[in-house]
Amino acid sequence: MALSQADVLAGLAELVNDETGIATDAVQMDKSFTDDLDIDSISMMTIVVNAEDKFSVKIPDEEVKNLITVADAVNFITAAQA
Predict the structure, then answer these.
(1) Cβ-count burial of 25 within 10 angstroms (0-12 exposed, 13-18 middle, 19+ buried)?
(2) Spatial distance between the Cα atoms of 33 and 31, rounded to a whole number of angstroms
(3) E strands of 1-82, at which residues?
(4) How far apart are CA 22 and CA 77, in angstroms?
(5) pLDDT digits (tens, 9 = 90+) for 24-72
(6) Looking at residue 2, what is its pLDDT?
(7) Which of 74, 66, 60, 5 is nearest to 34 (CA)?
(8) Which of 48, 52, 62, 80 has its CA 20 to 30 A from that of 11?
(9) Cα angle vertex 67, ends 34, 23, to 5°?
(10) Contact, 22 vs 37, CB < 8 A?
(11) pLDDT band for position 1 (50/70/90)?
């Protein structure tokens, strides 16, 4: 069963918190991973790998560069589960 956007957002916020220590409530749909949350590329790759495990999806390397905002990641994961 596919998770809702809210469930994916909550799970992603936990992964970001685990990797970076950023508060889960700071991880919001309109935030940019690099500009707003200050996540570097190495941490981003770790978050992507952990998200693949957590949500049972595959995020191709060429797709990662398109995940600019939290919404981009949530939408990609939500669609990939379908």
Answers:
(1) exposed
(2) 6
(3) none
(4) 21
(5) 999 999 999 999 999 999 999 999 999 999 999 999 999 999 999 999 9
(6) 82
(7) 66
(8) 62
(9) 50
(10) yes
(11) low
